[in-house]
Each structure stands twice: as C-alpha cells, then as structure tokens.
Q: What sequence folds into this?
C-alpha cells in the first residue's frame, strides 16, 4: 500500500485564477490545470530564487517530491504556452499558511485582516469587500 500523500504548505496564494492566451479566437478554449502546489513550486524557484532543497522545506515535503511537482508544473505551462491553452490554477492537496484575503474590486492580496487598509482604486472600504482564501487543509 503506498504512503499517504502529504498535504503541501502554500505560503502565498496566487493573485489570479489563471492565464489566457490572446490572439487565438476560440469560443471554448482548452484548459490546462495547474494545482496550487505546482504554482507554489514555480513561485519559490523562479520568483523567490530558492534552491529545490529550500523550496521543499518551505512546502514541508521531500526534495524528490518537490522535483516531481515542479517538473509537472513546467510541463503544464509548456503545454499551455505551445498549444495556446488557458492555464487554470485550482485544486491539489494543500493548505495556505496564515489567513489570506482578496479584495473583490481590485484583486489585491492581504495577509491577515489586521493588515486591511483601503485599496488605492476602491471607493468604499470595509471587510465585506474581501474574499477569504480557504485556509483549512484540503
């Protein structure tokens, strides 16, 4: 019987839900799914400039598991890029570290309700303008 899969820690949720190619006229575009942990692997390696060993520790997984997740993310991004497909970020076995909120109006990410200040382009201000990210384990 295989070992149960560890739930991966995500430190920073994505700002967007995905990406769409432009210049392709498709009514029903094909979608490539990128899981939250695949997104996090790209963020840690290519944006935060961590080594795979450091990134694996951040996600609370082994380095070989991290490498498999990262390689799958790169393959999915390459497929979407080459074939002109939409990338949708969703799903996976993860939990988000801390409490994260997103402004409904301007999509600004806020870590912790105590850090909520009026967004630059938002005319109204209040907690009802926020969407809470799922912070429990999936």
A:
């Amino acid at each position: 019987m295989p070992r149960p899969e560890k739930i991966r820690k995500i430190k920073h949720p994505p700002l967007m839900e995905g990406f769409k190619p432009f210049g392709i006229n498709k009514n029903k575009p094909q979608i490539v799914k990128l899981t939250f942990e695949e997104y996090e692997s790209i963020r840690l390696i290519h944006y935060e400039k961590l080594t795979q060993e450091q990134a694996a520790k951040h996600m609370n997984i082994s380095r070989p598991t991290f490498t498999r997740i990262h390689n799958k993310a790169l393959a999915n991004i390459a497929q979407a890029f080459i074939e002109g497909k939409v990338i949708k970020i969703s799903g996976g076995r993860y939990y988000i570290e801390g409490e994260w909120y997103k402004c409904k109006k301007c999509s600004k990410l806020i870590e912790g309700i105590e850090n909520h200040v009026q967004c630059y382009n938002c005319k109204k201000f209040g907690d009802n303008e926020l969407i809470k990210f799922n912070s429990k384990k999936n």
